[in-house]
Amino acid sequence: MIKVIAGLGNPGPEYVTTRHNAGFWLIDQLARDAGATLRHEPRFNALVAKARLYGNDVWLIEPQTFMNRSGFSVAGLARFFKILPDEILVAHDELDLPPGIVKLKRGGGTGGHNGLKDITAQLTTPDYWRLRIGIGHPRELLPQASGKPDVVNFVLKAPRREEQEPIDAAIERSLAVMPQIVQGESERAMMNLHRSED
């Protein structure tokens, strides 16, 4: 079963609406749905809430370390509460999926995502769950841009409305299968989540 759901993003009001904060958007909605309040926990340098989700106690966490140090918060909380890597779900923005697509998987590479790189390094294993929220890639979404796509600038900007609406819909579909994810029915969750995109 999942005991920690970590959403990745950057802290501060200037980043709230940026593509890189898609993981925070999911956590914010989970907290609202559970009636939980995220509070700053200095030990983990993160916003943290213990929520009752679908009959289970689950830690919700938003690292406040900036993206490339996300592992400090996630691994710190996991070690403190003796939570195993495969009991952790990390929700993050995914360049390799278009807006509106969301995928669930366990383990694998980081795809160049600095938050995942640091979490993998701090946990010393890639064997945790990932909820990959598609935000698209500038080479597809901004084809008129000349030269090499500026990925850093892209993820630190807000999605256009035509991107935001499918991203929001993907988060809603993720929330719909969250009971299965939390209760450890990952295969069923994956099937339902991925089927909803066909």
Fourth-level CATH superfamily? Peptidyl-tRNA hydrolase
The H-and-E topology, N to C, reads as: EHEEEHEEHEHHHH
Lateral strand order in the biggest sheet: 2-3-4-1-5-7-6
- pLDDT < 50 stretches: none
Strand composition percent: 15-25%
Largest sheet: 7 strands, mixed
Instruction: State the helix count.
Output: 7
Number of domains: 1
Distance between the first and last residues' Cα: 27 Å
Total E-strand runs: 7
CATH architecture: 3-Layer(aba) Sandwich
Mean pLDDT: 95
Derived structural class: alpha/beta
Work out the helicity level. 25-40%
Instruction: Tell me the name of the CATH class.
Output: Alpha Beta
Spatial shape: globular
Question: Which fold does the CATH topology refer to?
Answer: Rossmann fold
Radius of gyration: 16 Å
Verbal overview:
By secondary structure, this protein is of the alpha/beta class. The chain has one domain (4-195): 3-Layer(aba) Sandwich (Rossmann fold), CATH 3.40.50. It contains 7 helices and 7 strands, in the order βαβββαββαβαααα. The chain has helices at residues 22-34, 70-80, 114-123, 138-141, 151-155, 161-182, 186-195; strands at residues 4-7, 39-41, 46-53, 56-63, 88-94, 102-106, 129-134. The chain has a 7-stranded mixed sheet with strand order 2-3-4-1-5-7-6, sandwiched between helices. Strand 3 and strand 4 (56-63) form a beta hairpin. Helix 2 runs parallel beside helix 3 (114-123) and helix 6 packs antiparallel against helix 7 (186-195). 41% of the residues are buried. The mean pLDDT is 95.
